[in-house]
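>> received
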Amino acid sequence: MFPFLQRFTKAREAEHPPLMGMDSYPNLCAAHDAWLTSRELEGPPRRIDPLKLPPHILKFVLILDLLDARRDAIVRLAGDSLRDMYGRNPHSMSIREFLGKQDADLLLDLLYRVARTGSPELHSRAQVVINGLNWSYSCLLMPLAPDGARVTRVIKVVDGESLRNALS
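>> returned
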């Protein structure tokens, strides 16, 4: 590797270090790699080209737009598996509309922290009630700054391998 490229790669890794436990989730690693390669020199990327994501994880992607005025988020896009899990298409719905208060508050806290720090975060959740069922899963939250300056969008990628409900 060229010395400049090594320095550049190390600088990017120092700014956004590998996430603890990420190696247990190859699909989330692939999503994180797409986020890293979509970045410009500094800060979160404006967007992630869906073609950079492995096709089999697209059905587990949620794109959320943050609404600062109401401290809420709107679903911009939901993958097929997540729409099936919710029992409806949550497109254009508020997080507060389709999650219970406690789960919505927790997710919003995470989304706004990711937006504030500009860094991805790995999370595991248990006992999340969705569509009347208790679910557990691991997910990766990745910030996006569509205007190139301010994070107003977060991509949530659920690891399909970890997704379980109380009936499975």
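>> Residues 1-17 have pLDDT under 50 and may be disordered.
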